[in-house]
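Case study.
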Amino acid sequence: MTEATKPQTVDEALRQFTDMMAADGYVLSWEPSDPQRIVVRIDATEGACADCLVPVNVMEAIMAKALEPTPYALDRVILPADAAH
Amino acid sequence: MAQLEALLDPTGMEAGAADTTLSPRPVSLRGLTIGLLDNTKPNSTLLLETIAAQLQEHHGAGEARLYTKDYFGTPVKETLLEEIVRECDVVITAVGDCGSCSAATVADGIMFERAGVPTVSITSDSFLMSGQAMASVQGFPGFDFYAVKHPMASLTAEEVRERAMTAMPEVLRILGVEEGR
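After joint prediction, the assembly is written out as follows.
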C-alpha cells in the first residue's frame, strides 16, 4: 500500500464532510468497492435532522470532489433508507 | 384513471440552467427595493432584517420586503421567484445552516441571478461545502455566496445582530456596491 492509498488519506480527504454530516446528526463511513473506487455511506444517528440531508446528486458531487486528491474515485453514496432524496 | 404527479426536483435544475454570468451589479443601493427571502430556519428573519436595516441606514436602500419560503430544503418555487423578481432590485436569502437548506439557499441565489437580480445567499460555514456542491450541480461553480459562522439557530438576538454586522462587508462586495454608496 502506498502512502497515498492508506485509509487515513481518505479519512483526511473526507474529514470536513464527516464534520458537516455530524452537524446534521449523520455518520459518514467509507469502504473500497474495488481497487479504484470507494462507496461512501451515510447513516443517521438518533438525533439526525431528517429534512437536512442534501439531495443524493449534491452529496455525490461533494464526495467526488473531496476524493480527487486521493487515488480513489467515488463509486456511489448510500443514504439512509428513509432519506427523502 | 391514474393521475401523473409532477416530482419536485430538490436541486432546482431545469433546462437551460447553464448560465454562469452574474446579473449586472447596481454599484449603488440608493432607492433600490431589497427582497429578503426567509427560508424559515431559526434566526433567519432577524439576520435578514438587520442586514436590510444596515443597507437602508448606511447605503440609502429603499423598501425591504420580506418573503418566506414554504420549505427550507428545496429551492424557491417559481411563483414566488417571479413575484420577488418583479418587485425587488436585489435579494438576500438566508439562512443555510443545514445540509439541504444551505444547498437550497445557494440554488435560490443562482436562480435569482439568472433572472437578472443581484443576490446574496447566506449559509453557515459548517455547510459551505454543501453550498459549493450545489453551485457546481447547478452549473455555476464560481457562484459567490457568504457563510456566517455556525451555529445560527441557537444564537440570541444580540448574537444574530453581530453575525449580521460581520456579514456586511461581504454582502456589499457580492452586490458590487462600493462602501458608502
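Observations recorded in class. Helices of chain B lie at 44-59, 78-87, 99-114, 128-137, 157-175. The first strand of chain B starts at residue 34 and ends at 38. We will return to this complex in the next lecture.
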